[in-house]
């Protein structure tokens, strides 16, 4: 029995054939995936792909998802894809993921405080603010190829509703007390 154990320990063929074959398969899959993602036809596919990204892209091709253009404050824009039944919260999550992916690829690791972003800015579509996270995008008339833009706004802490900018409220309160 000791001879069998010693023979198995020193022999590289019997060490761990499963991990070797799985690492080779992963390397092949990764190289095939990177070759596919470099194809110009698949230029809209994110580099760090998740299962939900694949499902959303398939739904977009089948017509059960929509592509929405997000206009930033600097007049640049980017596109996100969400399901037709998406809520404002789903759109915010898609914007967060897309922005984080773009920042990661351009500048390396950089942290964006999304709590700060949503506290100071909101989304708007056709002069209608998208404030309620549970509201459906379709209720605002958002369809495939619609454009949504960021606008500066602040959420009042007490009411959790958007109100005027904080500094205006602050100075307004000072003038009343004088």
Biggest sheet, spatial arrangement of strands: 2-1-5-3-4
* Strand content range: 15-25%
Secondary-structure-based class equals: alpha+beta
Biggest sheet overview: 5 strands, mixed
How widely separated are the two ends? 95 Å
Q: Helix amount, in percent?
A: 40-55%
Shape: globular
Number of helices: 6
Q: pLDDT below 50 for ≥5 consecutive residues: which ranges? A: 1-13
Order of helices and strands: HHHEEHHEEEEEH
- What's the gyration radius in Å? 25 Å
Average pLDDT: 77
Give the strand tally: 7
Give a verbal description of the structure.
- It is built from 6 helices and 7 strands.
- By secondary structure, the protein is α+β, with helices and mostly antiparallel strands.
- The strands form 2 sheets. It has a 5-stranded mixed beta sheet. Strands 6-7 form a two-stranded antiparallel sheet.
- Strand 3 and strand 4 form a beta hairpin.
Please give a handful of descriptors for the protein shown.
178 residues, single chain, two-stranded antiparallel ribbon, five-stranded mixed β-sheet, disordered N terminus, alpha+beta, 6 helices, 18% strand
């Amino acid at each position: 029995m000791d001879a069998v154990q010693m023979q198995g320990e020193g022999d590289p063929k019997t060490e761990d054939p499963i991990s070797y074959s799985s690492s080779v398969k992963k390397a092949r899959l990764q190289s095939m995936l990177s070759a596919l993602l470099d194809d110009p036809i698949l230029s809209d596919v994110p580099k760090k792909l998740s299962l939900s990204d694949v499902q959303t892209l398939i739904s977009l091709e089948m017509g059960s998802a929509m592509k929405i253009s997000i206009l930033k404050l600097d007049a640049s824009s980017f596109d996100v894809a969400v399901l037709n039944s998406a809520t404002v919260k789903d759109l915010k999550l898609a914007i967060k993921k897309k922005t984080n992916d773009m920042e990661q690829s351009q500048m390396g690791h950089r942290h964006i405080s999304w709590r700060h972003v949503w506290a100071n800015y909101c989304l708007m579509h056709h002069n209608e603010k998208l404030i309620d996270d549970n509201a459906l995008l379709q209720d605002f008339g958002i369809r495939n190829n619609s454009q949504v833009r960021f606008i500066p706004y602040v959420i009042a802490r007490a009411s959790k509703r958007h109100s005027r900018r904080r500094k205006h409220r602050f100075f307004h309160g000072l003038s009343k007390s004088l």
